[in-house]
Amino acid sequence: SISGVITVNPSPASKLVYTAGPSQSITISDVSSVITVQRQDQYVNPVTTGALTVTLASTSGNGLFYSNSAGTTRITTVTIADGSSSANFYYMDSNTGTPTLTASSSGVTSATTQFTINTNQLVYTGGASQTLASGTMSSTITIQRQTTTGAHYTTGAITVTLSTSSSTGAFYATQTSTTPLSPAQVSIASGAYSATFYYKDSAQGTPAITASATAYTPANTTFIITGSATQLKFTAGTSQSIYVSQVSSIITVAQQDAGGNAINAAATLTVNLAATSTTGAFYSNAQGTGTPITTI
Predict the structure, then answer these.
(1) Which end of the chain, N or C, is less surrounded by CB atoms within 10 Å?
(2) For residue 239, what are the CA distances in angstroms to 111, 171, 235, 280?
(3) Exposure pattern of 273-296 as b/e (b: 16+ CB <10 Å)?
């Protein structure tokens, strides 16, 4: 028998495509998250041969492009280097509206996307980024509408739409609610600037929680949903080397799920303490005084 190696190379670049960061909704004068433009052949394969200069343009007269997330280095072009298929950049605009951003280069089809530039923003001011056991209701989550300077904005009533990346997550009006909000929305009345809601999820994971409203930059956060407690782990003070009759430094034990996530006790949990040494003793204080303990 005979064998051989066939190398399949991409065709020449025929188009530019945004592969990260298109269609963002940001607040006026805020720098966007990273935007990635990639060169591809007609079969959607990334192309890495040769250097390519990409010109950046916006339909907004006040739109600016930057090479860094701090928005301190202005650019009008990015270079896709030889051996690479893509380049990154950032965008900021001091005008509200829906500008179209174009990345173009000679001989290839341009990439276009539309951004939304908002005057005001939604911000989580309480209860964001919680860690919850699966099936447990969150503490209060507060969403607030603000101006670009962080001041409260109270003009007009708005409806805030709530969404989660988890198919098993749901939003609630109160901490004792048994029926999810349907549709998943809360209202901020005219003259008010905030609203509250709650979240519960029956599956482990890290769901992204988004609050959005027309003409507002959305608020995003991530929750951690843990499983049931399945194990005890020492999280501080393990493997100490101490002298005879010396009290150790503090030792901490925590309950965790199978993934190693800390679980808050739903009820009082008694932990039994034991040592293989017949002369070892446990204490509740750093001085090692009083009656030794056998549980915590």
Answers:
(1) N
(2) 57, 44, 11, 15
(3) eeeeeeeeeeeeeeeeeeeeeeee
